[in-house]
Amino acid sequence: MEPGEIFKSMEELSGMSEKERSLIFNRKPNIETFISNVKKNKYSKILILAGAGISVSAGIPDFRSPESGLFHNLQKYKLPQPESIFDLHFFRSNPKPFFSLTREIYPSNFEPTPTHRFFQLLDQKDMLLRVYTQNIDTLERQTGMRGDKVIECHGSYATNTCLTCKRKYSQNWFKKQIFQSSDNVDDNVVIPTCLNCNGIVKPDITFYGENLPAQFGRMYKNDVNEADALIVLGTSLQVYPVAGIVDLVKPDIPRILINRDCVHRANYLGKLSKGTFEISTDGFWFGKKELEKHNYRDIFVQGDCDDVIKDICKELKWDEELNKLLNNKTKSDNNTPDNNGTNIKNAETEESVQNNNGKVTQGNGNDLSAMLDNLSLKNE
Ligand code: CNA
Hints:
With 380 residues, this protein is an alpha/beta fold.
């Protein structure tokens, strides 16, 4: 189906009969009905899609929140535009802003939040299919949850590669380099350089226009077909292809968005004639009257994810378990690179998704470099 296609009936659009759609939430999709289904053990393969918002309470700013987001605070670097800080072309010519920012947001300075611990709890209860995180802060793996349960879709600071000779460097090596100076960050940024060839050593986080880690390409097709519920938290869903996961899961599973603002709504284009309407196939079906009328599975819970998660856990009587995890702060060395050398054994990051669809883009899945040319980032 093409976005914006005209559909004669909801059956045609969802591929499900009215009765099948009603079975999901009895036509009343809300967080209470979802919780009630959880209590009935209806979900054992929950897919999580997370973004920068889940780490805000840990002290790491997100990208796009007005006033507090990183993009708002990048003016001091005098970038052509905020996204340039994660643009490979710009980075090669001027890596200073990126390494300066890295000192501010470096992962080891932060602890997992209640939301991260909730993912761990789902894992312990064998209800978690997988966490797809767009975050690079490694807080999911720091919870100690099973390594194969987390896909760091945009890579992470855990491993690093020389841009020139591709030599790998450990997290500890990288950390020592960037924190070797205690002087003023803006004036004295250390650029980590390769011991082999003097090239710039870049953390294996995915910059705009770069390919996603191979693990993403290998896993997501199966996972979207297997999931029996999707929970999306703390993301503006503007970066593709990860944001597309929302639209790839099966039409018969619930989709829950927990976020400060309502994002990624379907585009209802209006009723054309009796029984015929035009609607985009992408996006959530809440937040607009005409969409709500047809909504059978999408739930929006507005608020800070930690608060919402704590409320959900309370309702499920999981709050004690969540608190225990928060207090125990089990750290994991799962997937953690060796801590003294420069030889990373985990070759995962060396491969990457080798097609255009796997490239990180912003907006509606178009290539970001093209979008950077016309400076118009497409929002919903
Ligand atoms: P974004 O575009 O900044 O969107 C964040 C979303 O979260 C917004 O809709 C906010 O309203 C919402 N939000 C902020 N705080 C909260 C909160 N406490 N509770 C609920 N919602 C909240 O960030 P995205 O993740 O959508 O963008 C993807 C980028 C962000 C990825 O490529 C990341 O690498 C990148 N990023 C990562 C980190 C990190 O690793 N922690 C930090 C900043 C940016």
